[in-house]
Amino acid sequence: YIGGVCGENNYATLEGICNTGAVNGDEYIGGVCGYNDEGSIEASYNTGSVSGSYRVGGVCGYNNDYGRIKASYSAGSVSGSSEYVGGVCGRNYGTIRDCYYNSDICTVGAVKLEDVEGKAVGLTTLQMTAPDALATMKFSSEVWEKKPADTQQMKAFYPGLTAIEDDEEYISYEAEIAFKNTNTNTNLVYGDDLTF
User: Fold this and answer.
1) Is residue 149 a contact partner of residue 172, using CB atoms and an 8 Å limit?
2) How large is the average pLDDT for residues 66-83?
3) What is the model's pTM?
């Protein structure tokens, strides 16, 4: 069992934790926890890449019968060689609620290659870094915070945990403007003045 924070969680609650590094192994590999054995993973996230062969997940590799994962996300890539690979959880027998993965980066689905509406779904990078991301993800503002984009540094931030000082996982972006001449009677050339 290999996890970014915890290999195996036995009956405990993992809350308000994060992993930002790569996690690699063979079986039961998770961005936060490899094997959740009747424990709880809440308000946690992973932004590192996760790879393995069997039961590989962005948040948790394997969530057993009484395991719970809620209000958590993964924004890293997830890969594995079996069907039990997911952006949130590789194999789930327990409860998952309000969990998300970045569908632009991770293309394997939420849980065992499929999204589960209301439980574990994919969101785009834009949705996860937008100003209203906490509302979209149904995350409490008492536990989570959403920093506005830094337009000077060209950074857009994922939700961070209020308990972690300077928690600012972000993506860098480039701004691009495209103009189209809708007046077919004129030919604009480089250097011409434009009126808006």
Assistant:
1) no
2) 95
3) 0.87
